[in-house]
Recover the amino acids of this structure.
């Protein structure tokens, strides 16, 4: 089946905003991970903000991929914040024992940006 | 003894990666139609995602069958493949296969999300996973 990637990686202030979309299969998830890391390196931003509001299933593979994105971004030197995780997805992840690595979750975009700005000043 | 109806059933082929997404989307819609709430829908879709991926990667592809119980109190999901099979389920759920990309983490996780979980596998024949979820008691039609 042919599908169009609707995932996006946008620059905002000194950060990248990465938004994966719902129907992302495994190969698309890995491509998304690699795209984010390449963009982090190319744009020389200080932080990464992952918006998971479009994701309705985080299974073990997706959880591991998000964790890899966060840990790799950390190693490159970017702080990683996360927003938009749906409550039903969060409950399911906890029940399955899925954790996401070095990600700082926030309730909304304002708080996540504030966090990343503070991290930047601190650094 | 609850029986599961063939009348309200749905079959989805699992032959390529995108089919995993189709399978879990179908399971979510099926669960919603039966009256499951959003958290159960997500538990069911996530369990299907794990088991469908196993059927594709380790079983070389297969199919999912969704069934509603005749008394309309729950759903049954059967995912089968005709792959090489797994000799010992305890070793699968245990640490041996439970490394990244392995079979075990997904299986153990899916089992926790569902109310009933049965794993049958015969070397050379294939693998069949049967999962059930019941509507919370007190639910009215």
């Amino acid at each position: 089946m042919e599908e169009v990637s609707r995932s996006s990686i946008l620059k905002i202030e000194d950060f990248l905003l990465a938004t994966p979309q719902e129907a992302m299969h495994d190969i698309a998830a890995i491509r998304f991970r690699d795209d984010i890391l390449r963009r982090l390196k190319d744009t020389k931003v200080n932080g990464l903000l992952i918006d998971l509001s479009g994701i309705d299933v985080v299974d073990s593979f997706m959880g591991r991929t998000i964790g890899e994105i966060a840990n790799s971004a950390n190693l490159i030197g970017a702080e990683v914040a996360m927003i938009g995780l749906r409550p039903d997805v969060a409950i399911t992840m906890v029940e399955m024992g899925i954790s996401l690595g070095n990600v700082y979750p926030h309730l909304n975009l304002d708080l996540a940006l504030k966090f990343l700005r503070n991290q930047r000043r601190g650094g | 003894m609850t029986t599961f109806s063939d009348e309200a059933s749905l079959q989805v082929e699992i032959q390529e990666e995108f089919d995993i997404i189709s399978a879990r989307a179908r399971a979510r819609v099926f669960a919603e139609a039966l009256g499951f709430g959003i958290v159960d829908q997500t538990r069911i879709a996530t369990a299907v995602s794990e088991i469908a991926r196993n059927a594709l990667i380790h079983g070389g592809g297969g199919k999912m069958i969704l069934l509603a119980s005749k008394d309309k109190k729950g759903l049954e999901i059967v995912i089968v493949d005709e792959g090489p099979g797994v000799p010992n389920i305890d070793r699968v759920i245990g640490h041996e296969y439970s490394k990244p990309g392995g079979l075990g983490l997904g299986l153990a996780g899916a089992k926790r999300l569902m109310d009933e979980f049965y794993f049958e596998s015969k070397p050379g024949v294939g693998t069949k996973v049967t999962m059930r979820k019941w509507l919370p008691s007190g639910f009215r039609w």
About this structure: Strands of chain A lie at 8-12, 15-19, 47-51, 79-83, 104-105. The helical segments of chain A are 26-43, 60-76, 87-96, 109-122.
